[in-house]
Amino acid sequence: MTGAANLPAAGLWRRFMSITYECVLLFGVLFFFNYAFSALTQYKGQPGPMHWAFQAFNVLVLGAYFAGQWSDGRRTLPMKTMQLRLVTREGAAVGRARAVGRFLVALAILVAAAAAGTYVHWSLWVLLLASPAWALFDREQQAPYDRIAGTRLVHDALPPKR
Protein backbone atom coordinates (compact mmCIF):
# COMPACT_ATOMS: atom_id res chain seq x y z
CA MET A 1 0.00 0.00 0.00
CA THR A 2 2.85 2.29 -0.66
CA GLY A 3 1.77 5.59 -2.07
CA ALA A 4 -1.59 5.50 -0.28
CA ALA A 5 -0.67 8.76 1.42
CA ASN A 6 -0.72 10.41 -2.02
CA LEU A 7 -4.12 9.06 -3.05
CA PRO A 8 -6.85 11.67 -3.54
CA ALA A 9 -9.59 12.03 -0.98
CA ALA A 10 -12.82 10.24 -1.78
CA GLY A 11 -15.32 12.54 -3.43
CA LEU A 12 -18.69 13.18 -1.85
CA TRP A 13 -20.55 11.34 -4.61
CA ARG A 14 -18.49 8.18 -4.08
CA ARG A 15 -19.06 8.43 -0.33
CA PHE A 16 -22.81 8.87 -0.77
CA MET A 17 -23.10 5.96 -3.18
CA SER A 18 -21.00 3.74 -0.90
CA ILE A 19 -23.16 4.62 2.12
CA THR A 20 -26.33 3.90 0.15
CA TYR A 21 -25.00 0.53 -1.01
CA GLU A 22 -23.79 -0.24 2.52
CA CYS A 23 -27.29 0.40 3.90
CA VAL A 24 -28.77 -2.10 1.45
CA LEU A 25 -26.26 -4.78 2.50
CA LEU A 26 -26.58 -3.99 6.21
CA PHE A 27 -30.33 -4.50 5.99
CA GLY A 28 -29.66 -8.17 5.28
CA VAL A 29 -26.91 -8.48 7.89
CA LEU A 30 -29.03 -6.90 10.63
CA PHE A 31 -32.12 -8.84 9.57
CA PHE A 32 -30.24 -12.12 10.00
CA PHE A 33 -28.69 -11.26 13.36
CA ASN A 34 -31.85 -9.61 14.70
CA TYR A 35 -33.88 -12.67 13.75
CA ALA A 36 -31.38 -14.88 15.58
CA PHE A 37 -31.47 -12.59 18.63
CA SER A 38 -35.26 -12.56 18.79
CA ALA A 39 -35.48 -16.33 18.21
CA LEU A 40 -32.99 -17.10 20.97
CA THR A 41 -34.33 -14.61 23.52
CA GLN A 42 -38.02 -14.53 22.49
CA TYR A 43 -37.75 -10.73 22.29
CA LYS A 44 -40.82 -9.30 20.57
CA GLY A 45 -40.10 -5.57 20.67
CA GLN A 46 -41.51 -4.75 24.09
CA PRO A 47 -39.92 -1.92 26.10
CA GLY A 48 -37.68 -2.75 29.01
CA PRO A 49 -34.26 -4.26 29.63
CA MET A 50 -34.49 -6.56 26.60
CA HIS A 51 -35.00 -3.53 24.37
CA TRP A 52 -31.72 -2.08 25.65
CA ALA A 53 -30.01 -5.44 25.18
CA PHE A 54 -31.35 -5.61 21.63
CA GLN A 55 -29.99 -2.16 20.83
CA ALA A 56 -26.61 -2.99 22.39
CA PHE A 57 -26.55 -6.21 20.34
CA ASN A 58 -27.13 -4.20 17.14
CA VAL A 59 -24.28 -1.84 18.01
CA LEU A 60 -22.00 -4.83 18.64
CA VAL A 61 -22.97 -6.43 15.33
CA LEU A 62 -22.36 -3.21 13.41
CA GLY A 63 -19.13 -2.53 15.31
CA ALA A 64 -17.79 -6.02 14.58
CA TYR A 65 -18.79 -5.72 10.92
CA PHE A 66 -17.13 -2.36 10.36
CA ALA A 67 -14.07 -2.91 12.55
CA GLY A 68 -13.44 -6.22 10.83
CA GLN A 69 -13.90 -4.79 7.36
CA TRP A 70 -11.97 -1.57 7.85
CA SER A 71 -8.89 -3.02 9.55
CA ASP A 72 -5.72 -4.48 8.05
CA GLY A 73 -6.35 -3.20 4.53
CA ARG A 74 -9.73 -4.89 4.09
CA ARG A 75 -12.71 -3.10 2.57
CA THR A 76 -16.45 -3.62 2.56
CA LEU A 77 -18.07 -4.66 -0.72
CA PRO A 78 -19.41 -1.12 -1.31
CA MET A 79 -15.94 0.29 -0.68
CA LYS A 80 -14.49 -2.12 -3.26
CA THR A 81 -17.22 -1.26 -5.75
CA MET A 82 -16.75 2.48 -5.30
CA GLN A 83 -12.93 2.12 -5.20
CA LEU A 84 -12.58 3.48 -1.67
CA ARG A 85 -9.93 2.64 0.90
CA LEU A 86 -9.61 3.61 4.54
CA VAL A 87 -6.06 4.50 5.53
CA THR A 88 -4.30 6.35 8.32
CA ARG A 89 -3.18 9.93 7.80
CA GLU A 90 0.22 8.55 6.80
CA GLY A 91 -1.32 6.18 4.24
CA ALA A 92 -0.86 2.91 6.14
CA ALA A 93 -3.53 0.27 6.65
CA VAL A 94 -5.86 0.98 9.56
CA GLY A 95 -5.44 -1.27 12.60
CA ARG A 96 -8.31 -2.88 14.48
CA ALA A 97 -8.15 -0.44 17.42
CA ARG A 98 -8.29 2.59 15.14
CA ALA A 99 -11.16 1.04 13.15
CA VAL A 100 -13.11 0.49 16.38
CA GLY A 101 -12.32 4.05 17.43
CA ARG A 102 -13.58 5.41 14.11
CA PHE A 103 -16.80 3.43 14.47
CA LEU A 104 -17.35 4.64 18.04
CA VAL A 105 -16.72 8.28 17.13
CA ALA A 106 -19.11 8.08 14.16
CA LEU A 107 -21.70 6.38 16.39
CA ALA A 108 -21.32 9.07 19.06
CA ILE A 109 -21.86 11.82 16.48
CA LEU A 110 -24.94 10.03 15.14
CA VAL A 111 -26.41 9.41 18.61
CA ALA A 112 -25.74 12.99 19.72
CA ALA A 113 -27.52 14.37 16.64
CA ALA A 114 -30.48 12.02 17.13
CA ALA A 115 -30.68 12.87 20.84
CA ALA A 116 -30.63 16.60 20.10
CA GLY A 117 -33.43 16.18 17.56
CA THR A 118 -35.48 14.03 19.91
CA TYR A 119 -34.97 15.69 23.29
CA VAL A 120 -33.99 19.30 22.58
CA HIS A 121 -35.90 20.45 19.51
CA TRP A 122 -37.19 18.64 16.42
CA SER A 123 -35.33 21.02 14.10
CA LEU A 124 -32.01 19.71 15.43
CA TRP A 125 -32.50 16.50 13.43
CA VAL A 126 -30.71 18.47 10.72
CA LEU A 127 -27.52 17.78 12.70
CA LEU A 128 -27.53 14.32 11.11
CA LEU A 129 -26.26 16.13 8.03
CA ALA A 130 -23.35 17.67 9.97
CA SER A 131 -20.79 15.03 8.98
CA PRO A 132 -21.50 15.18 5.23
CA ALA A 133 -21.63 18.97 5.41
CA TRP A 134 -18.31 19.04 7.25
CA ALA A 135 -16.72 16.99 4.46
CA LEU A 136 -17.97 19.55 1.92
CA PHE A 137 -15.94 22.31 3.54
CA ASP A 138 -12.99 20.35 4.94
CA ARG A 139 -9.77 21.09 3.04
CA GLU A 140 -9.12 17.34 2.61
CA GLN A 141 -12.81 16.38 2.25
CA GLN A 142 -12.70 14.27 5.41
CA ALA A 143 -15.59 13.72 7.82
CA PRO A 144 -15.21 14.76 11.47
CA TYR A 145 -14.93 11.14 12.64
CA ASP A 146 -12.02 10.66 10.23
CA ARG A 147 -10.30 13.74 11.66
CA ILE A 148 -10.79 12.52 15.22
CA ALA A 149 -9.81 8.90 14.50
CA GLY A 150 -6.78 9.87 12.40
CA THR A 151 -8.04 8.16 9.25
CA ARG A 152 -8.63 9.15 5.64
CA LEU A 153 -11.11 7.78 3.12
CA VAL A 154 -9.36 7.83 -0.24
CA HIS A 155 -10.16 6.96 -3.83
CA ASP A 156 -7.98 4.00 -4.82
CA ALA A 157 -8.65 2.81 -8.37
CA LEU A 158 -5.92 0.15 -8.31
CA PRO A 159 -6.63 -3.30 -6.87
CA PRO A 160 -4.49 -4.21 -3.83
CA LYS A 161 -1.31 -6.22 -4.49
CA ARG A 162 -1.39 -9.74 -3.07
The main sheet comes to: 2 strands, antiparallel
Average predicted confidence as pLDDT: 90
Q: How far apart are the termini?
A: 10 Å
Biggest β-sheet: strands ordered side by side in the sheet: 1-2
Helix content: 55-70%
**SS content category:** mainly alpha
Strand content: 5-15%
Summary, kept brief:
The protein is mainly alpha-helical and 162 residues long. It has one domain. It has helices at 12-41, 49-70, 77-81, 96-120, 130-137, 144-149, and strands at residues 84-88, 151-155.
How does this model look, in words?
- This protein is mainly alpha-helical and 162 residues long.
- The protein has one domain.
- 59% of the residues lie in helices and 6% in strands.
- It contains 6 helices and 2 strands, in the order H-H-H-E-H-H-H-E.
- The radius of gyration is 17 Å and the shape is globular.
- The relative contact order is 0.17.
Give the secondary structure arrangement, pairings included:
Layout: H1 12-41, H2 49-70, H3 77-81, E1 84-88, H4 96-120, H5 130-137, H6 144-149, E2 151-155
Antiparallel strand pairs: 1-2
Helix pairs in contact: 1-2, 2-4
